[in-house]
Amino acid sequence: MVDDIKKQIHRLEREILEVYEKLVLPTWGKEMHGFPQTLYGYMMEVFSYIDLMSAYWKGNENDQTKRMIGFMNKYIRDATEKNSVSVQVWRHKLMHTANPRILKNNDTNKQYQWLLHWYEHLPIEQHFTFSETTDRKILNIGLVYLVRDIEGALSRYEENLSNSQELENNFKSHSSKLEAYEYRDIAP
What is the pTM for the complete model shown? Predict the structure, then answer.
């Protein structure tokens, strides 16, 4: 199963790079500049993989936000605030409101915003860093770099999986749940 996810993520990276090279770059500065809706769609898919991998890690789909942030802290980078902002903006707000949304931190009165790039227009050393002003924290993300972060996370998780009975049990538990989804008749 992990090999299947690896293949899917690798295929996703190849597709992203193909779209970037054949569609995004040739139209840069023109009417379709940046293909933002396509970029947002890829961000949704990337965060769905983080959701999936974190569910295998924990063995269930409970506490989605905490689970995803915990997985990111352990396997991508230990950066709770950045991981939390990214999950809230790119998994929840984008999925539920059709656009990423600014988050306000009521403790600091700062707004969390984002700078999202496909790839090389954002230097790699700026990926997953905050730029900060007096009233804002802007999370810089490069989509291709994030996909590569996930590939690395999956490799680290797979290494832990092979050495932990608990992780193996969690993995098997979630695998069996994924194979047993049932239709529910839900009336409006």
Answer: 0.94
